[in-house]
Amino acid sequence: MTVIVLGSGGREHALALACHRDPQVAAVHAAPGNPGTASFATNHPIDPCDKDAVVALAREVAADLVVVGPEAPLVAGVADALRDAGIDCFGPSAEAARLEGSKAFAKEVMASAGVPTAASRSCGDLDSVGAALDEFGAPHVVKDDGLAGGKGVVVTEDRDEALAHAEQCLNSGHQVVIEEYLDGPEVSLFAICDGERALPMQPAQDFKRVGDGGVGPNTGGMGAYTPLPWASDNLVETVSNTVISPTLSAMRDRGTPFIGLLYVGLALTSDGPKVVEFNVRFGDPETEPLLSMLESPLAQIMQAAARGDVSGTDGLRFRRGAAVGVVMASEGYPASPVKGRRVVAPVDDEDVLHAGTRIEGDGLVTSGGRVLVVLGHGETLAGARTDAYSRVNQLEVSGGFHRTDIALHAAELEAVDEMADELAPQSENNPSNPTDGENS
Ligand code: AMP
Ligand code: GLY
């Protein structure tokens, strides 16, 4: 099988590697890819949102499958163009991608499917924004209706800041969605969908805020880990039944079946799991630790999904143990990351994923905010953390920074649970409640 992965970040590096590991895959192409993908795949300098260029590349390399990494090409209709050209594509149509492209649309689908989520109001002017802010009270959650590259959501106690963000969105011609604040740890659950059926992955958790302890502005994600030893055993089953299946049915009933990766962002509230957001592509950086643990042949499964039937596959198997991914970011991220800074990192290490690097002269420099995603593995989260951070300490992003507390609290809880098991082997394991979730 020949596979093209569209995109240039750490997620795409991880996707391309997982395809490369699939025994059925003979060649991997990345478009545009990055210095990491170039070490085992062929990079092509095209814009992943340029439908004609993507279809032409797929024909040129006789691709059997195109995997779309980021949301922008999906919202732009790249998957539709590929399907129209008779090329299998793992990624939803532009219509189905509205689950991520429009927060108001996602809310409408969730309401019609009875999916548990935060109460919300879609507002087109500042008066209705003010009324909705007062209705729900603080903390205020204000969302740009359209794609905003991770900058669209503001969660704040400050009503003036909430209003100012809403005004900015309205001024750029977008609706604003005001939501009830959901309290509880956040979980990312990904499912490979074929339009009807879903193959869920094991859950992961992402660290959204820029600074240790969950302080500072929201980012695309500063690190992630999987699995979640503190989560209940039936979480995946519950979310499959209450969220994923009803959403797939609703999308099918609308005539826009969802084929691709459904990313369910959840808050585990005292009333059970509720949806914070849908994305229509793999999450970044959760994908990096997740795929490093995947034993199943990913390209074959994504191809089956693209063809509309995953029932003949063996599902998704993950190996035992834990994986932690730490983002090394460039100075100034997320507001204004500095580009062109020196990076010292290998390009051919499966545990060092390139997210924002490019080659300059005979070395690497930063080309984006998130520069590297560095992985560690272990039997426990503590072991995986030690492995990841010892690797981080050997690398360099000049002037850059990273969080030092990725998976720290979960590792501590895991250790307490292990100790409790040792002290009272007969007793029921009492799942503890983590405070890692950063939705505040
Ligand atoms: P979104 O782009 O919708 O994922 O929002 C980005 C981040 O904002 C989420 O990961 C949460 O941390 C936070 N957030 C979004 N919606 C809510 C909500 N209703 N309650 C609490 N936090 C939220
Ligand atoms: N890690 C959050 C995202 O991919 O949107």
TrEMBL record:
Q: Which residues form a coiled coil?
A: none
Q: Name one GO biological process term.
A: 'de novo' IMP biosynthetic process
Keyword annotations from UniProtKB, A to Z: ATP-binding, Ligase, Nucleotide-binding, Purine biosynthesis
Provide the top EC class.
ligase
Q: Which reaction does it catalyse?
A: 5-phospho-beta-D-ribosylamine + glycine + ATP = N(1)-(5-phospho-beta-D-ribosyl)glycinamide + ADP + phosphate + H(+)
PANTHER family in the record: PHOSPHORIBOSYLAMINE--GLYCINE LIGASE (PTHR43472), PHOSPHORIBOSYLAMINE--GLYCINE LIGASE, CHLOROPLASTIC (PTHR43472:SF1)
Supply the name of the protein: Phosphoribosylamine--glycine ligase
What are the top taxonomic ranks of the organism?
Bacteria, Bacillati, Actinomycetota, Actinomycetes, Propionibacteriales
